Amino acid sequence: MSIPLTDTATLHPLVLPARADAADAADLIEYARVRNASLTETTGRDDDHLAPAALLALLRSDADLERRQWLIRIGEEAVGVAVLNIIADDGGRAAFFTINLLRSVWSRGIGTAALRFIEQQAAIAGVARLLVWIEHTDADESRLDSPTGFGSIPKDHGARFLLRHGFALEQVERVSAFELSGDADRLRTLHAEAAAHAPGYRIVSWQLPTPAEFVDGYARLKQAMSTDAPDADLDMPEEEWDSERVARHDDRYLQRGETVLVTAAQHAETGELCAFNELSIGGELGLTTHQADTLVRSAHRGHRLGMLVKTAGLLDWRDLRPDSPRVITWNAEENRPMLSINEALGFTPIAYEGAWRKDLS
User: Fold this and answer.
1) Higher model confidence: residue 139 or residue 183?
2) Measuring CA to CA, which residue among 210, 236, 233 is closest to residue 223?
3) Are 38 and 101 in contact (CB under 8 A)?
4) Whole-number Å distance between alpha carbons of 289 and 245
5) I want to staple 54 with a disulfide (CB 3.0 to 4.6 A). Which of 41, 116, 256, 305 is the partner?
6) Residues 293, 316 contacting (CB under 8 angstroms)
7) Which pLDDT does position 157 carry in this prediction?
8) Contacts of 36 (CB under 8 A, 6+ apart)
9) Backbone dihedral region of 41: left (phi > 0), alpha (psi from -120 to 50 degrees) or beta?
């Protein structure tokens, strides 16, 4: 089934095959190719590229997220992809989307038509607020300040598109990179200094799947991450985490062939997990590592636990995946405590993302 977008472009629901190497996986392969090519064009990097097999597990819906995807074609040629992900928490009132178009077909009205379709689908599903995160490329345009008072983004092609269609910039996130091939002495020094300020805590770590002894504590940390991390006025819903959600979370990564290291600080007296950091990477050699969630529970702040878990994780990661050249991470520009830790570790800014919101009538 095809859905007309413009006089030349059509939208095609992506039917997911059982496997990426199945006979009916041609559309998935095209989807991955166009998605990756568009990311390279807009960011200049391949850090977020995914092979079809890894992407397949990411595209399947589950109890936490209803995932819908479409291919955008001109004739028989795939020129873009569109995504709508509806968040189950808060009754499905929030969703995020992406539209990736090859640069060669920009400014033809295709993105506008695709966004109109996504907004219609979201409204029919009961979505009240639509969110999107995009990386902005600075090319000497005028700038748009974040309403948080921290950071700004250029009014580039993506920003102008979103402003024109009623979206508001809510937050700026810094994308930072850490080179793993450098000398580890600074990591060891920072780790020792942090440990000296945290005498009542010990480091525990594991690779997914999460061991039974840590499932409940990990669930509490993940739920706290959904409320404690700065989100400006994006109004992200609180996530409900339990053992079943941890199992789904772990399975998604494992189906994608990813290695995930979770490093946590455990309160020695109570056994509570009170801080954590996640590092993940795909199975191929030489890939970029992604640093996912990092959190220190509010009751345990002031003991340098953020530095403790990050340095412990990075030191272990150098041994676990010495083939990975660097780590990429994202932080809200107003999250000064976490940015200070990253800067001390040697993370440097490489890009900035805007977090945008539109309320649907």
Assistant:
1) 183
2) 236
3) yes
4) 24
5) 256
6) no
7) 93
8) 46, 49, 50
9) alpha
Burial class (CB in 10 A: 0-12, 13-18, 19+), 308: buried
Going by pLDDT thresholds of 50, 70 and 90, the confidence category of residue 141 is: confident
Spatial separation of the C-alpha atoms in residues 145 and 159, rounded to whole Å: 12
Instruction: For residue 334, give both structure tokens.
Output: 């107003």
Residue 140 has pLDDT above 80, yes or no: no
CA–centroid distance for 282 within its chain: 15
Q: Rounded distance, CA 59 to CA 65, Å?
A: 10
Q: Two tokens at 290?
A: 């992604």
Which amino acid does the sequence have at 306?
A: G
Does the structure show a pLDDT above 80 at 139?
no
Nearest-angstrom CA–CA distance, 169 and 132: 10
Q: What is the pLDDT of residues 189-220, one digit of tens each?
A: 999 999 999 999 999 999 999 999 999 999 99
Q: Measured between alpha carbons, how far is 226 from 240 in angstroms, rounded to an integer?
A: 9
| Single-letter amino acid, residue 270 | T
Please give the DSSP secondary-structure letter assigned to residue 288.
P
Is the pLDDT assigned to residue 5 strictly greater than 80?
yes
**Contact at 8 Å (CB) between 314 and 326?**
no
For 39-54, give the DSSP string.
Answer: HHHHHS--TT---HHH
Q: Pick the closest to residue 36 from 80, 91, 86, 76 (CA basis).
A: 80
Cut 0.85: pTM above it: yes
Per-residue model confidence as pLDDT tens digits over 335-346: 999 999 999 999
Classify residue 333 by burial, with Cβ atoms within 10 Å: 0-12, 13-18, 19+: buried
110-133: burial string, b at 16+ Cβ within 10 Å, e else = bbbbbbebbbebbeeeebbbbbbe
The amino acid sitting at 129 is R
Amino acid 272 reads E
Per residue in 71-82, pLDDT tens?
999 999 999 999
Nearest to 342, CA basis, from 316, 320, 299, 309? 309
Which pair of tokens denotes residue 306? 């953020």
